[in-house]
Amino acid sequence: MPPALLRLACAALLLLWASSATAHGPTVRVAWSGLQPPALTVRAGTTVHFHNANSSGSPCTVVADDGSFTGPTLGRAEGWHHTFETPGRFDYHLSEQPSAKGRIVVVEP
Predict the structure, then answer these.
(1) What residues pair up with 27 in beta bridges, in sequence order?
(2) 18: in domain
(3) The overall pTM is greater than 0.85
(4) Euclidean distance between the first and final Cα of the chain, in Å?
(5) Is the preceding omega at residue 37 within 30 degrees of 0, hence cis?
(6) What's the rounded Cα separation, in Å, for the pair 64 and 61?
(7) DSSP 76
(8) Does residue 6 lie within any of the structural domains?
(9) H or E stretch at 4
(10) Host domain of residue 78
């Protein structure tokens, strides 16, 4: 195989790998005005992306009410992924603003 073609093939494989490694399911927009969507139903094994959409740039931290997950503190426009493996209902809130609440319902695949 010519070197140029080999480099092109390697670049294509690397791009394909990088895009699959960062792929995620639904996104929850996190802001002081609320969580959008406030409730979400997903299948077990789904990865949900939480995105800090605060226009002020204020940090936020997503925390499960039952303690099953806690995300990192997200700065402006930062995101975090969590994979929900077990069916159930997961209520969560922002630690910086406990009145901002959301719910993820996980169903069998």
Answers:
(1) 49
(2) no
(3) no
(4) 43
(5) yes
(6) 10
(7) T
(8) no
(9) helix 3-21
(10) 24-107
